Amino acid sequence: MAALTAIVERYAERDSVLHRADARAKVPAAVLYIFAVTSTREGDWLSLALLVLPVILGAFVSRLGPWFVLRRTFLALPFVLAAVPLLFTREGETIFTVPLLGWTASREGAEAVATILARSWIAVGVAALLVSTTSIVEILRALRWFRVPGLLVATVFFAYRYFYVIGEEAQRMLRARDARSATLPGYRAGRSIRWRASVAGHMVGSLFVRSLERSERVYAAMQARGYQGEHRFLDTLAFPPVQGVVAALVVLYGVAVQLLVRAA
Amino acid sequence: MTATTTSVHPAPPEGVAALEVDALRFDYPDGTPSLQGLSLRVEPGEKVALIGPNGAGKSTLLLNLNGILRGQSGAVRVFGETLSDATVRSIRGRVGLLFSNPDDQLFSPTVYEDVAYGPLHMGLPLDEVRERTQDALAAVGMEAFADRPPHRLSLGQKKRVAIATVLSMGTPLLALDEPSANLDPLARRELIALLDRLPLTILVATHDLAMVADLLPRSVLLDGGEVVADRPSAEVLNDGPLLAAHGLEPLSAHGHPHA
After folding, report:
1. What percent of chain A has pLDDT over 90?
2. DSSP string, B188-240
3. B222-257, pLDDT tens digit by residue?
4. Are B121 and A173 in contact (CB < 8 Å)?
5. Is A66 exposed, middle or buried (0-12, 13-18, 19+ CB in 10 A)?
6. Which stretches of chain A score pLDDT less than 50?
7. Which CATH number describes the domain made up of B17-94+208-249?
8. What is the pLDDT of residue B45?
9. Do both A26 and A67 map to the same domain?
10. CA dihedral B99, B103, B107, B109 (to 10 degrees)
């Protein structure tokens, strides 16, 4: 279970200004800042350098430390691989050719990939800061406060709530399979990779069916307690205006970097 | 008896224990201590009860027997083979483990495939896999449900299928966790009769002392990860103060199950 928790449980219990700040300031600031980051133009290294500074600052202010935040951003890196084909598809000055395949990589392509990599990395860093300093309930509460549809918020909430349950279910299935994955002297165990793959595929299917049935039971239990399609939260505390100002400043910084670099 | 219970393993030499647990120590990864240097020896053909309060280490011990959990120190030997990285798969062919919750045990889309999984994985010829699967389903009276998905069965039926998934492997040692829990009286009676018929070495972790009295001549009482008592069941079950000291209750005068 520990491994699963490490992946999902993103909130890190610390005491810092960032942790105490209201989610209604942090959530929009993070989202808008990510917008500013993603609108950076290709090859605009100065902007990217300026935009990464607040993330590093945030890592210190939140007492998480830069290494902690960096580690959490690695999770998103595989998705950046999707940008790699650009290296070969973008027309331009050739840097190298892949032997045998004859693909040519262009300088413009390399620049595009590097920019996408940097932008996503900073954006994920911002998101990592947000979820490491804000508990899921606070984030959802803030989303509701901003009038994000209740159904959407409920969906996120249940995904979070039941991720562990389904993860544990999956682990128990794997354990059951291991317990009966035996060898006998004189026989070749494990049959073919095809057979093992089909067993694994069927396990995924079973897990899906079980989840579906569980959702029906959970929904019945919720209805039994009067659920009418809206998740109600207890009242939130008053929202200190100074936090709104700080959040606005963070966003303004992102926008200013974009505008000033373009103007220069 | 059906062919499912005949083991493909060569008969163990005389004098080799079915199970030897030697000073086994196990702490959970979060640091919770469980087994405190536990030792236990079970002879081939013995039927032994593991009793004790919740958290005594019964389930943990069973999970250690075929390497699902691995102790930090000590040794587990099954028919003379010591559990290690190299032997764990082979040991799983000797120890059939029944999880207490049958939903944890059954992972395939149909009953038939689940029962066939063990023998298929061992690489047995398909004819033999079919024969073992049929025999195992017959032994628990579930042939008619072969094509059902496990989640469409009642709990009692799931329990029987779960036992069949272990029987089909032909393991000479069965380690059963709470096999009678939550069964209705008839299903429980049938289960006890089935286990009584099997000519195997059987280790049962249970709170069902009435079943212990009917089925298992020897009782090992665990508490705090240690063996507190290891005596004939008749003695242990009549030792009211001993049972009471370890969260158990003596059977009522007319031997009714309290479960």
Report:
1. 17
2. HHHHHHHHHH--SEEEEE-S-HHHHHHH-SEEEEEETTEEEEEEEHHHHHH-H
3. 999 999 999 999 999 999 999 999 999 888 754 554
4. no
5. middle
6. 1-2
7. 3.40.50.300
8. 93
9. yes
10. 140
For chain B, list residues whose CB is within 8 angstroms of any CB belonging to chain A: 8-9, 29-30, 66, 68, 89-94, 96-97, 99, 103-109, 113, 117-118, 120-124, 149-151, 165-166, 169, 171
Indicate the SS3 state at residue A235. Answer: coil
Looking at the domain assignment, is residue A238 inside a domain?
no
- Mark whether A44 and A162 lie in a shared domain: no
Domain limits, chain B: 17-94+208-249
Using one digit for the tens of pLDDT, what is the confidence trace for B70-110? 999 999 999 999 999 999 999 999 999 999 889 888 988 89
Number of domains in chain A: 2
Instruction: State what percent of residues in chain B have pLDDT above 70.
Output: 92
A188 to chain B: which residues are within 8 Å by CB? 123
The answer as to whether A209 is a domain residue is: yes
Residues recorded for chain A: 264
Largest CA distance in chain B: 54
Q: How far is CA A114 from CA A87, A109, A126, B14, B132, in A?
A: 9, 9, 18, 70, 59
- With tokens 């689940």, the residue in question is B114
Token representation of residue A252: 């303004």
Same domain, A159 and A118: no
pLDDT for position B3 = 44
Same domain, A108 and A166: no
Q: Which residues contact A120 (CB under 8 A, 6 or more apart)?
A: A76, A79, A80
**Residue in A2, A179, A191 nearest the CB of B66:** A179
Are both A113 and A172 inside the same structural domain? no
How far is A48 from A20, CA to CA, in rounded Å?
28
Residue B97 CA: distances (Å) to CA of B72, B120, B168, B180: 21, 17, 12, 15
In a domain, A188, yes or no: no
Task: Evaluate whether ipTM surpasses 0.85.
Answer: no
Amino acid found at B148 = R
- Residue in chain B closest to A207 (alpha carbons) equals B107
Residue of chain B nearest A169, judged by CA positions: B104
Q: Does residue A206 lie within any of the structural domains?
A: yes
The pLDDT, as a whole number, for residue A23 is: 86
Residue ranges making up the domain that contains A211: 150-180+195-224
Secondary structure (3-state) at B106 = coil
